[in-house]
């Protein structure tokens, strides 16, 4: 009697599962910090938008900067989960702000004027 069985053996299936597991073990760490990069990009974007809002406020209010984001008088809103705060007291020559996100420990700062080293560039730590 001839036996004509078609299909995969248990060993062949196990080898395929092991190969898929190895590929997953290589790929997962590469994408593990993708969410944090997105949070940081969101904080940087919000700080750049704050620069635009502050410059509009500056030109409309006798060359002075807003002391808080609520005092801007514009519809400035930070992204979901991001908190932006103007730090210190703005002067006629500059201001500083920081952005935080509830899902990451990193904080992004931006400084304009007053002899800032990276003026107008958000820096995250």
Strands side by side in the biggest sheet: 1-2-3-4
* Count of domain modules: 1
Secondary-structure element order, N to C: HHEEEE
Counted beta strands: 4
Counted by DSSP, the helix tally is 2
Report on this model:
This protein is an alpha+beta fold and 125 residues long. It has one domain. Helix content is 39%, strand content 22%. The protein is built from 2 helices and 4 strands, in the order H-H-E-E-E-E. It has helices at 10-31, 34-60; strands at 82-91, 94-101, 107-113, 123-124. Strands 1-2-3-4 form a 4-stranded antiparallel β-sheet, with helices on one face. A hairpin with a 5-residue loop joins strand 2 and strand 3 (107-113). The protein is rod-shaped and about 100 Å long.
List keywords for this structure.
4-stranded antiparallel sheet, rod-shaped, 125 residues, 2 helices, 4 strands
What is the topological layout?
Layout: H1 10-31, H2 34-60, E1 82-91, E2 94-101, E3 107-113, E4 123-124
Antiparallel strand pairs: 1-2, 2-3, 3-4
Give a short synopsis of this structure.
This protein has one domain (34-124). 39% of the residues lie in helices and 22% in strands.
């Amino acid at each position: 009697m001839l036996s004509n069985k078609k299909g995969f053996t248990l060993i062949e299936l196990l080898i395929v599962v092991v190969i898929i597991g190895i590929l997953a073990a290589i790929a997962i760490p590469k994408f593990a910090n993708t969410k944090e990069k997105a949070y940081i990009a969101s904080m940087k974007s919000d700080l750049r938008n704050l620069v635009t809002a502050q410059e509009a406020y500056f030109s409309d209010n006798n060359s002075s900067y807003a002391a808080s984001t609520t005092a801007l008088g514009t519809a400035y809103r930070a992204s979901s989960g991001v908190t932006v705060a103007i730090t210190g007291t703005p002067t006629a020559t500059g201001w500083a702000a920081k952005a935080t996100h509830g899902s990451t420990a990193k904080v992004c700062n931006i400084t304009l004027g007053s002899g800032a080293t990276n003026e107008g560039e958000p820096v995250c730590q």
